[in-house]
Write the structure tokens for this entry.
Amino acid sequence: MPVPKKRVSRTRRDKRRTHDALTPVNLSKCPECSQPVVPHRVCPSCGYYKNRTVLNVE
């Protein structure tokens, strides 16, 4: 079985892990109710999407 020849240094390990960080979700404002909404999704509070009401929210 293959085994690493040398121990990986902290620097090399951390360089490899630099791309693993999670990025925060981008939120935009709903044009109808001004609530934060994920882009390209129906607004959960008012049901608005692409200049029209798609869902009837009570």
